[in-house]
Write a structure and sequence with these properties.
The chain is of the alpha/beta class. It has two domains: 105 residues, Rossmann fold (3-Layer(aba) Sandwich), CATH 3.40.50.620; 34 residues, no CATH class. It is 40% helix and 18% strand. The protein contains six helices and seven strands; from the N terminus they run βαβααβαβαβαββ. Strands 3-2-1-4-5 form a five-stranded parallel sheet, sandwiched between helices. β1, α1 and β2 form a beta-alpha-beta unit.
Length: 144
């Protein structure tokens, strides 16, 4: 199986779970005008997305996301896509469209925090008391 990694705005960078799952696979990000017109992004955010894509070695394309991804997969001889599981409902809708045409493996990101036991979600302060230790830990397990 040959994979193409789809870089999207919910998982930018070379350390995204999808990139880690297929480090040698080609990477693509798509600037989709119809998608972006529904997002309140200014030039600074678009520049950040562009620079993040460049930093992780992604090809940058402009056009309809599904069409571009399918075309690039075909051109590169890829039989599946890999992406980091998004949180954005708009990206989840795109995933449903993509999956109708090509297999797409989603890689879950690690949790932001780990909490032991039951958590009282009625008050943020109670949640934070349990979550703080893991939330402020730097990569590698060293406290911040």
């Amino acid at each position: 199986m040959t994979s193409l990694v789809w870089i999207h705005e919910d998982a930018l960078g070379a350390d995204s779970p999808a990139v880690k799952a297929a480090p040698k696979a080609p990477r693509v990000i798509v600037f989709d005008d119809s998608f972006l017109t529904h997002r309140p992004y200014g030039m600074k955010r678009l520049t950040f997305i562009y620079e993040s894509a460049m930093a992780c070695g992604a090809e940058i394309w402009r056009g309809p996301t599904v069409e571009v991804l399918l075309a690039r997969a075909k051109e590169l001889g890829c039989d599946r896509l890999i992406a980091t599981t998004p949180v954005s409902p708009d990206l989840k809708r795109l995933i449903a469209d993509i999956r109708q045409q090509i297999p797409l493996d989603l890689i879950d990101p690690p949790p932001l925090v780990t909490i032991d036991g039951k958590t009282d979600m009625k008050r943020f302060s109670r949640f934070w008391k349990k979550a703080e230790a893991s939330a402020v830990t730097l990569t590698g397990g060293q406290p911040g």
